[in-house]
Amino acid sequence: MTQAEQISAVDAEETGRSKIWAHSGDSHLMEPDDIWTSRLPKRLSDRAPRAERGEKYELVFIDGQQISRQLNDFMDAMRPPGVRDVQIRLQDLDQEGVWCQLSFPSMGFWTVNINDRELARACARAWNEWAMEDFMAQQDRIFAPAIVPLVDVDDAVAELESAAAQGFQAIFLPTSMPPEREWGFDMWEPLWAAADAANMVLAYHIGTGRENVVYRGPGGAVVNYMETTYPGMRVVTHLVASGALDRHPNLKVLIAEGGAGWVPALGDRMDEAYRQHGMFVRPRLSRLPSEIVRQQVYASFQHDISAVQIIEDTHYNNVMWGDDYPHLEGTYGHTQQTLHQLFDEVDPRIADRVLRGTFEELFNVPRMSDEMRNGR
Amino acid sequence: MTQAEQISAVDAEETGRSKIWAHSGDSHLMEPDDIWTSRLPKRLSDRAPRAERGEKYELVFIDGQQISRQLNDFMDAMRPPGVRDVQIRLQDLDQEGVWCQLSFPSMGFWTVNINDRELARACARAWNEWAMEDFMAQQDRIFAPAIVPLVDVDDAVAELESAAAQGFQAIFLPTSMPPEREWGFDMWEPLWAAADAANMVLAYHIGTGRENVVYRGPGGAVVNYMETTYPGMRVVTHLVASGALDRHPNLKVLIAEGGAGWVPALGDRMDEAYRQHGMFVRPRLSRLPSEIVRQQVYASFQHDISAVQIIEDTHYNNVMWGDDYPHLEGTYGHTQQTLHQLFDEVDPRIADRVLRGTFEELFNVPRMSDEMRNGR
User: Fold this and answer.
1) Within a 10 A sphere around the Cβ of A24, how many other Cβ atoms?
2) CB-hemisphere CA count at 13 Å for A333?
3) CB atoms within 10 A of CB B56
4) Which of A89, A236, B21, B169 has the fewest Cβ atoms within 10 angstroms?
């Protein structure tokens, strides 16, 4: 028995329920404080993303400019010990029943807000080196999407190609972009062509590319949470309506953490616009928007029961579960409880698809034993 | 046989299919050009919303300021003869198989962008008078939500109460608001209390409160169409998270035209925020966000098959069909084809709910005969 299988057996005996093993399409690495200072020359590392803890808020700066402010309490709540140590983290995974994790950046998210081309290039490269050395070279269950510098598309292409050659399987992209750089513009075509050629997944993570506290008022925590969701929908709309995905039918897009139950509705709304406003639609597409979505767009969720419920009747089959480890909105500490609530009453084929199938369709992963796959 | 029943019988004979009769939760009245000039003193009517047809674009002005620009072709495509004549319109309804219509404004939508308190009051009052005299007093199948002036909440309350006394059953509200006037702020509490007391539905229509062309680039027609959808989601989020709907459990909200398949996903996402970020959530609610949504939020769609598909498994039961008459994105000219495509294979109880039940739950309507209800 492997260690994971031993834990499985113990867990099943203790709880009387089988352990459900899943892959997570939405997890996070947490960078050491010196990730930039240890890897970049001082003239650059001084301007790299940096967190500063104040009395009540943790502030993030890039190049001297404050770009984010979050409560210390909020940040502290999402930093379990395993988040900085790969061996402790693997124990967490075994305990929770998570076999593989696509692990997005934490501080690295802010690199997309860098406006200086050299700095953006250097930060992306350093982050990818760190992720490879400290995580991906140590084990094969936790892997990251590469960061690509977005100031100039040629730099993004170069970093994507370098990352692909090293074994990265996806690139991280932010859901919010300045209006003149939206994802549907032709300026990004070289990146789509390169991702297509290298079989790299476009892994968008919600809540990236802009400050996330956009509303202060009653219900703010819930409102701002929802405000991170719409940009994920926008990304799908731009990539579909612009023809980017139609031109590259093998390109796969993951919208991580924003839920998945809304995807069929989005496809239908786009079809309605495409058909009913047909005389104004440019470019024409070779497939209906909803078909492109079904074939190329994946979406991950943590707790949403509707993300599972909609699959059977809408036939939207690209729903992926994610633990959002180690974040507060994720399932760390209650993963098995959540998975049993979500899947105990669900058709096993649908459960297998959401828990493991969609992830394995996008990524090469170490084999999960049949015993684990079947919850024995 | 009534005229409607005669048409039904002819239609069934011609097509070999029974006629499906529905109510529409999303239709439009179209104002005569002189709606403001004939009802307001000149010093006000000069500043009321006004359309001006240029060579290529139709421009809308309020108080001298241009606030919208749409292609003439686009505007012309949504003006069939029945849109200005109630008798022709009733023939259209009989032909299409639509029994009742909640009919929103057209030019009247722009009254919500008026900043002058007196002008807002006068325009709302004039629109409501016109809708009552020219439509609602003439027949009982087509009825409008009242416009309420939003510059000052006391004016909105007064107009709501006056409208309710005249027989209006809903008020129209716009989905986009300036940040300092979002629907979750306590400033609106008197309006919710008045609507609750008068049993008036809050009828939000997407694409209102701001210019709708927000993106110019590849896929613009589809992207801008989708951009009208998110504000409808935002409205639900603000009304739920702020506690407004929780304080008034009998208050009903309709989000018209934005589709309905996304509602369960929105409820689940809000639940996730509410539970997982619980320590930061103010106010606490007496019900989970998803419960409030299920009990008080209704949503209308035209063509989206997923809006129907999600009902059985998610148990979100407040899906309402709408024809969006006379708009291009509506079903005028192909209503029966659309309804048969949507409902022929659907559980009759679900079809009855979407086609008629949700509408009759919100509004008092003239009785539809059992023969029509049963498609005979």
Assistant:
1) 28
2) 11
3) 9
4) B169
Judged on CB neighbours under 10 Å (0-12, 13-18, 19+), A197 is: middle
- For a pLDDT cut of 90, what percent of chain B falls above it? 88
Q: Determine contact, residues B52/B58, Cβ cutoff 8 Å.
A: yes
What's the CA gap between A19 and A10, in Å, rounded?
A: 9
In sequence order, which residues have a C-beta less than 8 Å from that of residue B244 and are 6 or more positions away? B183, B184, B188, B189, B192, B238, B251
pLDDT band for position B8 (cuts 50, 70, 90): low
Kindly give the pairing relationship between strand A57-62 and strand A297-301.
unpaired
Answer for the pair B259, A269: CB distance below 8 angstroms, yes or no: yes
pLDDT above 90 for B78: no
Q: Which helix (H) or strand (E) holds A247?
A: helix A244-247
Which residues lie across from A298 on neighbouring strands? A254
Q: How confident is the model at residue A69 (pLDDT cuts 50, 70, 90)?
A: confident
Give the dihedral of Cα atoms B103, B105, B109, B111; nearest 10 deg: -130
- Average pLDDT for A314-322: 98
Residue B118 contacts residue B149 (beta carbons within 8 Å) = no
Query: Which of A76, A268, A316, A354 is the best mutation test for B, with the most CBs of B within 10 A?
Result: A268
pLDDT, one tens digit per residue, over A334-349 is 999 999 999 999 999 9
**pLDDT tens for residues A94-135?**
999 999 999 999 999 999 999 999 999 999 999 999 999 999
What part of B 64-93 touches A (C-beta under 8 Å)?
Answer: 71, 73-74, 77
pTM (two decimals):
0.95
Choose from A302, A306, A329 for mutation: most chain B CBs within 10 A: A306
CA distances from A287 to A104, A182, A240, B162 (A): 31, 22, 10, 51
Report, as an integer, the average pLDDT of B172-179.
97
A301 close to A268: Cβ distance less than 8 angstroms = no
A244 touches A183 (CB < 8 A):
yes
Cα dist from A294 to A252, B229, B304, whole Å: 11, 20, 15
Residue A45 parent element (H or E): helix A42-45
